[in-house]
Structure formats: structure tokens, C-alpha cells
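Anyone up for a design puzzle?
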């Protein structure tokens, strides 16, 4: 497995996987394109084989002077629960910690996404008990989670 920076050449494959997983909550291809141009980190995980299959990706933007926001993160369904999400998240946290101006990483997660919540808690993100209602396009609620860097 290799972790690499996403480039505009990845737009189609990233957007296809995004829609496959997040359905009506998926970011539009236009937004993915914008995020490829403006981010702190946009990393992909690829297998090391010749076809270079996209295994997953993670997107982090700066939404305040001292704050990073992890706005998108997924692992291809065929490769979930094998440690790849942890691998990508760990690399992301390490890279953000090297950015001295960033003091905090925040993210939103669906209240019923217990696997993702467990993963974030494994990396010491704290769940804010306040529920953000109707956060997603689908009407689902979210938690805010935070990690001090
Ligand atoms: C959330 C997601 C990125 C996790 O990636 P992953 O590669 O499956 O995660 P890992 O295999 O590294 O597992 C990380 C932790 O999640 C939990 N977990 C993973 N699979 C699980 C399962 N099937 N049942 C219960 N807990 C599970 C465990 O706590 C695990 O840590 P551990 O193995 O040390 O106990 C992935 O499931 C995914 O893409 N989901 C759909 C998109 C999504 O929900 N993204 C997050 C949006 S906020």
C-alpha cells in the first residue's frame, strides 16, 4: 500500500468512490475538484500493484487560522476493517502535527456511524455530546469530534 498526494488526474476515481459510498451525501465532482486545488492535505491510499487501485482517501482543509477540518474520509468497502483507515488517519494526524500553526483537528461524523466514531476515539478524538441536527443532506444528525495537536 502507498499513501500519495491526490492530483487532478485522480478526480474521476475519487468522485466515483465518493458517490458509491456516500450516495446522496456525496460531495459533487465540482467540489472535489475545488478541494484538490485547495486543501491542507488530500491523500489517497493505493495498492502497490500495476493497476494502482484506489483503496481510500482523506481530505483536510483549514477552516480557521489554527484549525484543520477533516471533511472527507473513506476506505473502499472491499478493503474496510483491515487496518487501512487507521493507517491513513495516523499518517494524516502526523502530517498535521508538523504544521505548527494548527492547534486542533475537528470533524463531523454521523451519529450512527459507530465504526468511524470508534476509529476516531482510537486516535484520541473527543466526541462533543451536543448533537448537530440535520447536518447531512439526507437529514441525518452529526457529532463534532476534536483532537488537540
Ligand atoms: C470509517 C472507515 C474509514 C474506517 O476504515 P477501516 O479501514 O474500515 O478502519 P480500520 O480497519 O482501520 O479500523 C479502525 C477501527 O474501526 C473499528 N472497526 C473497524 N471495522 C469494524 C467493524 N466491522 N465492526 C466494529 N468496529 C470496527 C475498530 O475500532 C477499528 O480499530 P481496531 O481494529 O484497532 O479495533 C471505513 O469504515 C469507511 O470508509 N466507512 C464509510 C465512510 C465513512 O463512514 N467515513 C467516515 C466519515 S466521518
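Challenge accepted. My sequence:
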Amino acid at each position: 500500500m502507498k499513501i500519495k498526494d491526490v492530483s487532478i488526474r485522480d478526480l474521476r476515481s475519487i468522485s466515483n468512490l465518493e458517490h458509491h459510498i456516500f450516495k446522496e451525501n456525496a460531495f459533487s465532482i465540482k467540489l472535489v475538484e475545488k478541494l484538490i486545488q485547495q486543501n491542507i492535505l488530500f491523500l489517497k491510499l493505493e495498492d502497490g500493484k500495476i493497476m494502482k487501485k484506489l483503496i481510500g482517501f482523506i481530505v483536510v482543509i483549514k477552516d480557521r487560522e489554527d484549525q484543520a477540518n477533516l471533511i472527507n474520509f473513506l476506505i473502499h468497502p472491499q478493503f474496510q476493517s483491515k487496518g487501512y483507515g487507521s493507517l491513513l488517519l495516523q499518517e494524516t494526524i502526523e502530517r498535521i502535527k508538523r504544521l505548527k500553526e494548527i492547534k486542533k483537528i475537528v470533524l463531523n461524523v454521523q451519529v450512527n456511524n459507530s465504526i468511524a466514531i470508534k476509529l476516531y476515539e482510537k486516535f484520541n478524538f473527543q466526541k462533543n455530546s451536543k448533537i448537530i441536527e440535520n447536518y447531512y443532506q439526507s437529514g441525518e444528525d452529526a457529532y463534532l469530534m476534536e483532537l488537540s495537536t
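A detail worth pointing out: The pocket of coenzyme A is lined by residues 21, 73-75, 80-86, 109, 113, 115-116, 118-119, 122 (CB under 6 Å).
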